[in-house]
Amino acid sequence: MALRLHLLLLLLAATLLIARAQGIGSSAPDCCLKNSRKALPSSWVKSYSLQGPELGCLLRAVVFTTKRNKKICASPTDPAVQKLMQNLDKKVKDKDKKKRHAPRPGGRPKRQKRQRV
Question: Could you report the per-residue pLDDT of 14-27, keeping only the tens digit for each?
Answer without folding.
Answer: 665 555 545 454 45
